[in-house]
Design a protein that fits this description.
There is one protein chain. The protein is mainly β. It is 9% helix and 45% strand. Strands 12, 14, 15, 16, 18, 20 and 21 form a 7-stranded antiparallel beta sheet that branches. Strands 1-8-7-3-4 form a 5-stranded mixed beta sheet, with no helix packed on it. Strands 2-6-5 form a 3-stranded antiparallel beta sheet, with helices on one face. The longest helix has 18 residues, at 106-123. The two termini are 33 Å apart. The chain binds zinc ion.
Amino acid sequence: MLSLALAAWVAGQGQALEMSYPVEPDLTGVTVRWSDHAVPFTRRGDRWLAAVGVDLDSRPGDHAVDVTFSYADGRTKVVNEPVLVNAVQYPTTELQVEERFVELSPEDQARADREAAETSAIYDTFTAQRYWTDAFEVPVQGAKDGRNFGHRRVFNGQPRAPHSGADLRATTGTPIHAANRGRVVLAKDLFFSGNAVYIDHGQGLFTTYLHLSKIDVAVGDIVERGQEIGLAGATGRVTGAHLHWGVRLVDARVDPFSLVRIGAQ
Ligand SMILES: [Zn+2]
């Protein structure tokens, strides 16, 4: 008889990956070692589930991760699981923005550097608590998709970092809703991002909402899934009003819609 004990995990660059195992008698916990974090699985019905992210710039090909199974009698078993990362060809987009966002003044450069350090420190925190229990939702009511995730970008003729979120159509003043329950960890104006809200959902999962015209939450607030957190706008480095929605999933930049598609719970 064929053994189906080993799952083959497959995901594209920039995609969320759901790992899942069946419930077994006496199995009390599952964790996966992902990007130097121990990510716990959550039991849902007859499955153990965890959502992890394959970064936009992950090396395509075979990877392996350690999964630890814990049993009621105190025993643990570690299985080295293969993960296949498929290359995804993302297009290049050329954009024209105000020159001050491409050739930065010394003051703006210092500010942008300071803010980059601040946001990377946020992403370096791994909150053990898991704030959410339901699937992630799109933050603009009725939006079915976003644009530009992963695009290599050239601003005013100069190459810049790839686009790490999805752009959703939204006119200035459109209500923006939290994609899920979490804690607000940043709520202020940033040089490139304009008015920005960052939500920590716990266990390495963050969502970001950029270029807002108005912010309705403050750092430390616990927001519920679907709660209004601000209004769409055109602040920061933009070509027009829209919502930039980003997901950071255990250190990986992933397409937010890939998180919605797996129904991460
Ligand atoms: Zn964007």
